[in-house]
Amino acid sequence: MSTDSIRAAVRKHYAATVQTGSSCCGPSSSCCGPALSPVELSRTVGYTNADIETVPDGANLGLGCGNPLAFAELRPGDVVVDLGSGAGFDAFIASPRVGPAGRVIGVDMTPEMLERARSLAARDGITNVEFRLGEIEALPVADNLADMVISNCVINLSPDKPRVFAEALRVLKPGGQLMVSDLVLLRPLPKRVRASVEAYVGCISGASLRDEYLAMIAAAGFADVEVLAESTYSIGSSNPDATEQAIADDVGVAPEDLKATAESVVSVKVRARKPGSGVRGPGSVPPPGQGTGSGVRGPGSVLPPAKAGNGNR
Q1: Can you give the pTM of this predicted structure?
Q2: Would residue 313 count as lying in a domain?
Q3: Which of 67, 192, 195, 202 is the Cys-Cys partner for 243 at CB 3.0 to 4.6 Å?
Q4: In a domain, 57, yes or no
Q5: For the CA atoms of 106, 132, 279, 268, what is the dihedral angle to 10 degrees?
Q6: Where do the H-state alpha helices sit in the chain?
Q7: 243 part of a folded domain
């Protein structure tokens, strides 16, 4: 698939998602059991009731594969940039944490998602968030602006992940943090699954190998790349969503075979820091012990420097 065709397929899928409310990254509908609501889906991937109750009605589409803010230490006055902000779920959770003096900027390439997010912010009078049309490979955000960049199950959809991480580094202030929840692979997927458009827009075939994903972050120039949490993500569960069934149909394999294949997919929460001595908001000096090196750390995630440049899947 070409870059343009990938973007077109992703844009079309998520335009439909905001209209129908179906999920790409969770078991939202089932032929084997009852559908999970967006609230239930959000709980399963790490959001608290307090998080969920923070957002305007209509913002939670149940699209994430984890909570990128679970380990975030946001402070009043911080500036947050959300890559692939969708209907604004994570942006709206960040909003009260940064307060009136802070700012949350969501970036999304799907006009239907932006329309939903902007209308919800206007309806509920949330004035410290804004949503911009753009691609995460070319962020419409100034250099050195953000204290934190977040993303939730979106970077795996990008055909140019190294560029995404380079852009995240560019818009962060020195000392600013990257906090990402995403899907990665423990081993390569079969060729037919990798070639499936349904698998791509379903957050599967665009995912990179775990170590390559971490190496891309380090190669972009980030320091202290760390896996904070990792959990299994089976697309062949007893409650598969519509996209997962479409993948099975698209590549012509039985659901049980797809389940075995999908055991290689895991959800990770990753934190990294832009080198430098900048201060993150009021009193937000980076925690002690965070050096300026570009190493990768976390369970099984230390990579030799020679691998840092091999970021493409």
Answers
A1: 0.77
A2: no
A3: 202
A4: yes
A5: 30
A6: 3-20, 38-44, 49-54, 89-98, 111-123, 161-171, 191-194, 197-201, 210-219, 242-251, 255-262
A7: yes
Count of domains for the chain:
1
First-to-final CA distance of the chain? 13
- List pLDDT tens digits, range 180-206: 999 898 888 766 666 554 554 455 667
pLDDT band at 261 (very low <50, low <70, confident <90, very high): low
Buried b (16+ CB within 10 A) or exposed e, 51-70: bbebbbebbbbbbbbbbbbb
Question: What is the per-residue burial (b if ≥16 Cβ within 10 Å, else e) of 84-123?
Answer: bbbbbbbbbbbbebbeeebbbbbbbbbebbbebbbebbee
Instruction: Check pLDDT > 90 for residue 269.
Output: yes
| Selection from 254, 149, 265 nearest residue 210 by Cα | 265
Per-residue pLDDT tens digits for 79-115: 999 999 999 999 999 999 999 999 999 999 999 999 9
Cβ pair 213, 163 in contact under 8 A: no
